[in-house]
Write a structure and sequence with these properties.
By secondary structure, chain A is of the alpha/beta class. Chain A has 21 helices and 19 strands. In chain B, the strands form three sheets. Chain B has a two-stranded antiparallel sheet with strand order 1-2. A two-stranded antiparallel ribbon of chain B has the order 3-4. Classes of the chains: A alpha/beta (561), B mainly alpha (327). The interface between A and B is large, with 77 and 58 residues.
């Protein structure tokens, strides 16, 4: 097919036919990976189409994206069967370099996707490799920078950028060759809700204006379902569903509830059809059924029976850090008290100071002014793998203290296992046990357990497990029997961008902005009172105190009844 | 935390200069340091590198390099004083030491060690200024047509060094956060973990390079003309420094002898070389724009430099207020 025909969109942006693939022995992608990463996958993405790739962790989403850009099998090796064509180029014959002109790829971690020192050089590199003239390169860099609203970053060093900025730069480098297809592997997993939404709508705009076909793998479906033309769901390396978003919700409701969105669960619990693909769709449906304004259910304020003393107290806390260009006050006079057994979600934009607050509480940062007092704290940072340095779980956690910590997180059975053979969730529990060991009193956790962004790259099933773990640590649920208990355990302080996760585990939300506390209150109040830091159900119903599908369904049933 | 030696994009003559010009200029200072042992000339090389860094805005890099270089110079001087017993001026008799035997500290050994230490310090400062002011992307771009594979290796290394530094900081934090009941992490397991992580990182970065088309046998892209208006200045200064240094060396400007007694030459040739090398440190000085302004009597004259511009501005402001400016 001629180049002109391909440009005009006659050929599919991506055509996959009967694709099966296995990673080389010993190189499976994590402990969750099946033996065959892809099994007889057939898929076509039309020019200018926006396709959402859904599925649980290790279902084959990332492998499919890597096959579409040539990294599989050219870079990773392994055994492959079938056919992959990108804009009429045979991806199994051509390498990633040859495909670079037709396809752009953006992975989850932006840190490893930049190879130059400055932003301008990073964006220009693919054009330089292609042999474009200096004038063409300058124009393309300028245009893509304008399209992504990053011209002000062009002269910056890449190691001074925030996660969101770095993700945009990596996207610019992937788009600068004007590819026909862009592949994105959970690009919003490290972004706050504001930056995540901005990225999704930026993709939609590029998709509409530039005609770039988009294949986007995501776990937080509620964020991007409304932007997608079509959804493809992967199940254990196979395609389980391929169709419009509305039909996908019906399919996921029947086949895999973990892939359902909060708004769809809300409608399903309330018995309303059809299931909505987004907030706007849900509101329209509600208007049609005459329940546009369900009655406000006053949240019952029960007296908290917990003791009033604090296990963590920050008073006028100022922390200064070197952020590359200059020293900056990351925390600016934080006052915060945490009581025993509280479950707190620490939220805010990237760079708001969430991690710094946790690190200051754990003693990793010295305050320049003020102080933070904490009885005892175990902090799990963003990368649980950093805690795992030995090849046997028992060697990481020797003795009685180690066994007590393993029992607390439900991993006593894995004492002889190699940490690398554990699933992602188990590795996270093991890392938490390492932070807890020796800080417990008998079988009781320390006064404060802090987790920093624990849900990155997690599907909903794993998030539900984490919610149970946090509730168990805080004394709400027995970790073994999963029964509700009355005892007060550790205060759980979790820094997270994931609003739905926060709604699932937290009872209190502390919202940080530019190093100061801008809101602090009951979870239902904070997560229903805004737009970005609000759950999908809260955005659909706009009712104070209604944030979860269960609460929303109760409100709707009250109206319908 | 960012390394003080990391490149920071700034505007300035040294940063704007092409990699060749910047390397020639800073290289000339390093060559002087390696050609001479006369402490005066070595001090002037160090001063040149320091002032170049400060004028280029790399104060942090210069400060860190001076700390490192002077510590090293002190160490070399101390070690040389302890292990070398040549020299006639004994300043301390430290008796009999295991392995070293009888230790007599001489002034000559201290001066000789300090001289080598100065050489190291001047070199470290020059490299720190290079690292903080010369864009590695431009250097690699210049290298690529000459040595593609070396440029690829250099690209990987230049990217992986800061990433590995960040990984090491994270691993140290995780080690500090381990509970007291967990097995302690020694340096060896931490280093092994860092190495394993670095290999994974290298694979990721290599995959990104592959996706950017690094492996393509594409026609070599015409490089942007990386020349700047400052290139001539730096090439000229480098040439003057090198010619002066070589000529001075031939004329006996490197007049220095540590043993048996210290003799440091301060002859005209040495002083001339030291003066030229010291002045070369002013090369990154940014000149203010030349402007043609019209004076009150209608004659045109050239004004130069920020100072006079500020002065004019003060006069203008004062005139608007109707007052008299103190000049």
């Amino acid at each position: 097919m001629s180049e002109l025909a391909i440009r005009r969109g006659a050929a599919p942006a991506l055509a996959v036919e009967g694709l099966s693939y296995s990673y080389p022995r010993g190189a499976a992608q994590g402990g969750d990976a099946p033996k065959r990463a892809l099994e007889d996958v057939s898929l076509e993405v039309a020019p200018g189409e926006f396709v959402l790739l859904a599925g649980r962790s290790a279902s084959g989403k990332s492998t499919l994206l890597k096959a579409a850009c040539g990294l599989v099998p050219h870079f990773h090796g392994g055994e492959i069967e079938g056919e992959v064509r990108v804009a009429e180029i045979d991806a199994l014959a051509a390498g990633p370099g040859e495909l670079a002109a037709a396809v752009g790829y953006l992975a989850q971690d932006p840190e490893t996707q930049v190879v130059s020192t400055t932003v301008a050089a990073e964006i220009e590199l693919p054009l330089e490799m292609r042999g474009d003239s200096p004038a063409d390169r300058a124009r393309a860099v300028e245009e893509v920078a304008l399209a992504l609203a990053i011209p002000h970053l062009l002269d910056r060093a890449v190691d001074t950028l925030s996660g969101g900025e770095l993700q945009r730069v990596a996207l610019a480098a992937a788009l600068v060759t004007r590819p026909r297809l862009i592949l994105l592997d959970e690009p919003t997993s490290q972004l706050d809700p504001v930056a995540g939404d901005e990225l999704i709508w930026l993709l939609r705009r590029l998709n509409e204006e530039w005609g770039v076909a988009v294949l986007l793998a995501e776990h937080r479906l509620e964020r991007c379902l409304a932007a997608a033309d079509r959804v493809v769901a992967m199940e254990a390396g196979r395609i389980g569903f391929d169709g419009p978003a509305a039909e996908f919700l019906t399919w996921s409701h029947l086949s895999d509830a973990a892939l359902s969105t909060p708004a769809a669960r809300l409608f399903s619990l309330a018995g309303i059809d059809p299931l909505p693909v987004g907030v706007r769709d849900a509101r329209q449906t509600l208007r049609g059924t005459g329940v546009a304004h369900p009655p406000h259910i006053a949240s019952r304020r029960v007296r908290d029976p917990r003791p009033t003393e604090s296990v963590l107290k920050a008073k006028n806390l100022w922390v200064e850090l070197d952020r590359g260009e200059e020293l900056r006050d990351v925390l600016r006079g934080i006052d915060l008290e945490v009581r025993p057994g509280e479950r707190i979600a620490l939220m805010g934009r990237n760079g708001a100071g969430k991690s710094t607050l946790l690190r200051a509480a754990a003693g990793l940062h010295e305050p320049v002014v003020g102080k933070v007092d904490v009885e005892s704290i175990a902090l799990l940072t963003q990368n649980p793998g950093d805690y795992l340095v030995r090849e046997r779980v028992g060697d990481e956690l020797p003795g009685d203290d180690g066994m007590a910590a393993l029992r607390l997180v439900g991993l006593e059975h894995a004492v002889d296992a190699d940490p690398r053979d554990l699933s992602g969730g188990e590795r996270q529990r093991l890392a938490l046990a390492i932070a807890l060991a020796g800080r417990m009193e008998g079988e009781q956790p320390p006064a404060v357990v802090a987790l920093d962004e624990p849900t990155r790259g997690m599907d909903r099933a794993r998030k539900d497990d984490l919610v149970a773990l946090i509730q168990g640590l805080a004394g709400g649920v027995d970790l073994v029997t999963h029964e509700v208990t009355k005892s007060t355990g550790a205060a759980a302080v979790v820094a997270t961008h994931d609003v739905e996760f926060a709604a699932a585990f937290a009872e209190r939300v502390v919202l940080l902005g530019e190093g100061v506390v801008i809101a602090d209150g009951p979870m239902e109040e904070i997560l229903s009172g805004g737009w970005y830091f609000a759950t999908e159900v809260a955005r659909v119903l706009d009712l104070p105190g209604v944030v979860t599908p269960e609460q929303g369904a109760a409100a709707l049933r009250g109206e319908l009844g | 935390m960012r390394s003080p030696f990391a490149y920071r994009p700034r505007r300035g003559p040294l940063q704007d200069a092409s990699p060749g010009a910047a390397v020639a200029y800073l290289g000339a200072i390093v060559v002087v340091a390696f050609l001479y042992l006369n402490p005066l000339v070595l001090l002037s090389a160090g001063a040149a590198a320091t002032s170049a860094g400060i004028l280029a805005g790399a104060r942090g890099a210069v400060r860190a390099a001076l700390r490192m270089g002077l510590s090293l110079a002190l160490l070399v001087a101390v070690v040389n004083a302890l292990v070398t017993s040549r020299g006639e001026t004994v300043v301390a008799r430290l008796g009999h030491w295991p392995l070293l035997g009888r230790v007599d500290v001489t002034l000559e050994a201290i001066v000789a060690g300090a001289s080598y230490g100065l050489l190291a310090a001047a070199t470290i400062v020059a490299f720190a200024v290079y690292s903080a002011c010369v864009d590695p992307d431009r250097v690699l771009r210049a290298l690529r047509p000459l040595a593609g594979r070396s440029a690829l290796t250099a690209t990987l290394v230049s990217r992986l060094v800061p990433v590995a530094a960040a990984d090491a900081a994270r691993l140290r934090d995780a080690a500090a956060l381990r509970g007291p009941g967990a097995a302690p992490v020694g340096k060896a397991p931490l280093a092994r973990r860092l190495l394993a992580g670095s290999l994974d990182r290298a694979v990721d970065v290599a995959a990104t390079l592959e996706l950017r088309g690094y492996s393509l046998d594409a026609p070599c892209a015409r490089s942007r003309r990386d020349r700047s208006r400052y290139d001539r200045r730096f090439y000229l200064v480098a040439a003057i420094v090198l010619v002066t240094a070589v000529a001075g060396k031939l004329a006996g400007a490197d007049d220095f002898q540590a043993y048996p007694t210290v003799e440091i030459g301060f002859g005209p040739a040495t002083l001339a070389v030291a003066a030229v090398v010291t002045l070369s440190g002013l090369a990154p000085l940014r000149r203010g724009p030349k402007r043609q302004i019209q004076s009150a009597d209608g004659t045109k004259r050239l004004s130069q430099g920020d100072k006079s511009a500020r002065r004019r501005s003060r006069l203008d402001r004062s005139a608007r207020r109707g007052g008299v400016a103190r000049v």
